[in-house]
Amino acid sequence: MTKVIKNGTIVTADRTWKADVLIRAGQIMAIGQNLQGDEEFDASGCYVMPGGIDPHTHLEMPFMGTYSSDDFESGTRAALAGGTTMVVDFCLPAPQQSLLEALQMWDNKTAKAACDFSFHMAITWWGKQVFEEMAQVVDKGIPSFKHFMAYKGALMVDDDELYASFQRCAALGALPLVHAENGDVVAALSQKLLEAGNNGPEAHAYSRPPEVEGEATNRAIMIADMAGVPLYVVHVSCEQSHEAIRRARQKGMRVYGEPLIQHLTLDESEYFNADWDHAARRVMSPPFRNRQHQGSLWAGLQAGSLQVVATDHCAFTTDQKRYGVGDFTKIPNGTGGLEDRMPVLWTKGVNTGRLTMNEFVAASSTNIAKILNMYPKKGAIVEGADADIVVWDPKRSKVISASRQQSVIDYNVFEGMEVTGLPRFVFSRGELVVEESNMKTRPGHGRFVAREANPAPNRALSIWKEISAPRRIERSGIPASGV
Ligand SMILES: NC(=O)NCCC(=O)O
Ligand SMILES: [Zn+2]
């Protein structure tokens, strides 16, 4: 059986042209004029684009005394509803737990995934076992390792562990990722705020000012430079962090920055809402910032100093958020966004003129496919690629509402936002999974996508590197010890 998408305009990261797309056995078989297939899908008035890739999700994640409520079934359904055809989730080993054992546990969660998925492995502790198992994790198709510089006493790793892990990544051709916030300062500020009686959700934002993110981003970049490895900074939310990335890139270092759709479009005023639930539902790390920071993130996407828009989808119900009544440090951190990322980015990016359609495809799909070494299997409309395709109707609109969403939680941080630009059809490896508002997803259809490491050594190419290599000086006379 073949399928053909007819009468549409193909939009990729670097081209826009009118052509039909023929699909067979889950892949793009041909692109051209007047193609014929067994089943036809009319894309008149639509853009035919690579399905979105969200490289930052936390589905059924154990965190802050509970589990995030969207699992691989509801989370991937939400993704597909909004035109995202692949997610990359995080495997989080417990302290002293084997990375391979944790990977098995995470893999067990994916049986009902409706779209393709991959993992990043988190480095949550350090030792000989972790050092050795990192190589096996890479061999299993996972050449990216996440490091939390925040969540002191839980997921956080210290600088010596960061440096050791970054060097190991360099040797393996793997990419280190960082959640860049200074966890020591956040802990101290949180304590101070609680002692002063600031225990509401707004104090969460006060405990994580842009400086804690800027400092950690600078530190991670310097440590990556010393280890000779590229770096990917997740959820860049502010100018301080963006500035560090921009500066490093200007110096020739390979540093990538990922803003979230939430930080691009929602601001800190949400935390001052008089309704405790409203504010707590928006508690995430880093917190929402002001309009100047948002402007910086949009400028970064336009200029290319930031490359990828993600969600960090980590959805907790209102009841879960209420664990933190009376103590903001106990509010589970995280917000949703998987279903809304593409429509909101299109509406606030393309429809406003901030992004071109090609830049939209780059930021929502192609760039991350390249960074994570799965291009052009993913993130491309090209013969031989997986037929992960979204047929995008730029005229379809809706008002976002939790009452109609696929996520299982009881609210939506974008509630009431009108979006124009929605999928008409979504294909996951050639299978029709969404037709406008009709969900045809199949739990279990999703497959793990194995990724290759870069050929080691995977240098960050700092311009200072070569001249700072250690030299031993041969001396003729060595003074006697003064003791
Ligand atoms: N971002 C957030 O608040 N929750 C998810 C865990 C993380 O990525 O920090
Ligand atoms: Zn995250």
TrEMBL record:
CDD domains: D-HYD. Its EC number is 3.5.2.2. InterPro entries: Amidohydro-rel, Hydantoinase/dihydroPyrase, Metal-dep_hydrolase_composite, Metal_Hydrolase, Metallo-dep_Hydrolases_sf. One of its GO terms (molecular function) is dihydropyrimidinase activity. Pfam families: Amidohydro_1. Transmembrane segments: none annotated. Keywords: Hydrolase, Metal-binding. Its cofactor is Zn(2+). Residues 47-433 form the Amidohydrolase-related domain. NCBIfam families: D-hydantoinase. Belongs to the metallo-dependent hydrolases superfamily. Hydantoinase/dihydropyrimidinase family. This is Dihydropyrimidinase. It comes from Aquamicrobium segne. The lineage of its organism: Bacteria, Pseudomonadati, Pseudomonadota, Alphaproteobacteria, Hyphomicrobiales. The gene is hydA.
